[in-house]
């Protein structure tokens, strides 16, 4: 690869001098000796050459290599970027800190050559050439003007975090670069990302910076942590051990704010007096965040941080990392439309990123709250946010852009995207999959589409609730009722402690959001909540426990001691996201009248006929429904007969068949003929069950209950399954009746092994040939005058000649009034008896 331009070499040299003589004392120290050289400097010529030749590059550099602080300034001075350089950072704190460090290297303040832009805060000027932005800002810039006028380069920093906004921003940038701006310089930078797939997607060369600035020694537990030891206790013990064995600042990685406070409490009194504990998490006021990353004037500091400290953020004086091995991620269940936070084990990439924080300014140590054996079982990378996040915002952006097909590094799950579009349709943002004017208005607001819809539809009075729902809870230990928080916002006092910094942020955000909203009349807060959460209107189930069904179809519950537990209807704004039955965290009570007012277009009248297993009958009901909620339920008195019959079919499937004797004989006759002629319909149980709609439905008129079905004769319906020709064949080959010598018709039973007739013996007198059907002999069962079986035969003439004499001897004494001739073949058939004397 060729040598870099002379100007590039000069720039690199200048950067080193500036770092040494101006600002490097704050950022790059090793036991008091200034050290401006960073690993990224070695590959800077290769990186610049790749950008010059290809217009794009993927930079893979370990933590502490200097990519955030070196690359934008080097690109600015090469002349290959025509226009402003936009660099994306995953978090607000990282974006502000990166801009400040870049500006300091130029001897300037932010807002001059280097500026930043994020939600609710912008510091740029006409002289700004490098703009550090949070990731969602780029999407707004592209959607506003896809040609990105005045922008010459886009840098995706810390792309390994794979946020949803970063994935979307990269996909949009690739489309812009291909269709409108082939001159746009594109660079993707990451510390731990598997660079191959990204380079293939971007069609860019990979530039790799080997090694971090200083070595980091890992220290694992001797054995896996015992399950009975509480996590916060084990974390505090490891922090105390690390402080006791080392020198310099300590950075502790914990999954969330709650764990930070609990570990901090357990460290009270266990650390030396010169140790200052500094929490660091996203909801912390910026002044306290700055205190955590700034160097201490004396002693040492212990920073208890969330994953916010994994990014390009440089935390001063850190020599030791304590990785507690947990990470908190959002998991979205598209079936319930709810997100929940889950705490999981860190991945190998996250552990590497965290450990690298100890090698930023000197050789360091990384204590890990797991054993070396467990280390090998860590998964390689965390899941991309697009795989597990709420995709409602993404669905809006895709609709504004004009459809699917963007070149995503990881395609969004189709099911989750489909559920997001269902919600957007309910909010009026989509119509038949296409963006509406209302949807475009929502996309321009810096809010989740739910809250944006509430702000646009409810106007300025809804801004406080929108801010309240988009920030952390302002009350400590309060029940679920959001009206308690709204009263605090309006200046009232309550019985619960107030989180003052959170309250200040909510008030500030409410003022900012009100600027985007129209002037509309004030409405109750539950109306606004129902606008944003039409799928989370909750109806209390019957019973003593406060369990609810949501309009979206999922179940939810709340603590029985909660003041809202007795309310019939709620609007639920937040749950713990459990996909089976979610716990309600925040809600507002709402009346049915208000629901009908705000969700009128979503309420539908549905007439239903359904089989009730509990009642054992068809229930015809007229219902008003909001999603899965039944707001009213009355009898459907004029339900069509065919609807009732169709519902009765479900009852038949549950109750099963009970055929009359005539119907069973008919099925047996059909089965006998079908054995020789497969064209005859199959009337077996399985076949009839599979074709209920065809043969039974037309004959269920008037049948609505289990009792009706029990007495219903299906013979007519069964006969209707055969054509006239087939019935003629059945009657000929397997007639239903046998004509006795007296001319009387007696039914033939085909359910036995051989077709059988049963009749009194006197009725067959004079018969000299055995009766047959379809060429087969009938089984004849002779009955006594008392209707008791006395003989069964398959050969009547032989019976007369043999066994009859014994039967006559026995029967004539018991039934003397009935004829018992010596030669029955010569007697006339009869059913008469001799008259009494």
From TrEMBL:
Gene Ontology molecular function terms on file: ATP binding; hydrolase activity; nucleic acid binding; RNA helicase activity
Superkingdom per UniProt: Bacteria
SMART domains on file: DEXDc, HA2, HELICc
InterPro entries the record matches: CON_HrpB, DEAD/DEAH_box_helicase_dom, HA2_WH, Helicase-assoc_dom, Helicase_ATP-bd, Helicase_C-like, HrpB, HrpB_DEXH
Domain spans labelled Helicase C-terminal: 238-402
Domain (Helicase ATP-binding) ranges: 48-211
Keyword ATP-binding assigned: yes
PROSITE patterns listed in its UniProt record: HELICASE_ATP_BIND_1, HELICASE_CTER
Annotated spans, Disordered: 812-837
Enzyme Commission identifier(s): 3.6.4.13
Keyword Nucleotide-binding: yes
Membrane-crossing segments per the record: none
Key words, A-Z: ATP-binding, Helicase, Hydrolase, Nucleotide-binding
Protein name: ATP-dependent RNA helicase HrpB
Organism: Octadecabacter ascidiaceicola
